[in-house]
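Feature request, filed as a ticket because there's no other form

It would be nice if the structure record came with a short human-readable summary line next to the tokens. Right now we just get the raw output. Example of a typical job, pasted below so the devs can see what we mean:
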Amino acid sequence: MKIWVDADACPGPVRDILLRASQRLRVPTVFVANKRLTLPRSELVSTVQVGAGLDVADGYIASSAESGDLAVTQDIPLAALLVPKGVVVLDPRGELFSEENIAERLSVRNFMQELRDSGVMTGGPSGFSAQDRQQFAATLDRELTRLLKAR
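Raw output as currently delivered:
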């Protein structure tokens, strides 16, 4: 089992929670980004720097993650590739993507993209809050515990 992190837009508090969980539970964690990342040295934590370009990090994670792994991303199309493979996928606010909700989430995302492309101002997500951090930590802990028991 590995934790895969779409690190290009990963909030700092989420990164810190993941680093602590990796050490505490002894789970290898891979941060994938198209820029250089500076993380604490650990035998359990690694980084992969992919080339520049749209969705290059996503492609790397999609081709590398396996059933029983956990991934953290806010990229819904990437989540839509991972969920059918049996990868547990969380967004940085602690929402779990599942077989039951991924099609709807992708549809809403595509609809909002069409609105933005046609010039409609849709606004962006709210800032990352302490409540978001707590929700992420709780969901991560629950899902890692479940995955580790299933091994």
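Something like this underneath would help us a lot:
Residues 3-150 form a domain with the Rossmann fold fold (CATH 3.40.50).
The first strand starts at residue 3 and ends at 6.
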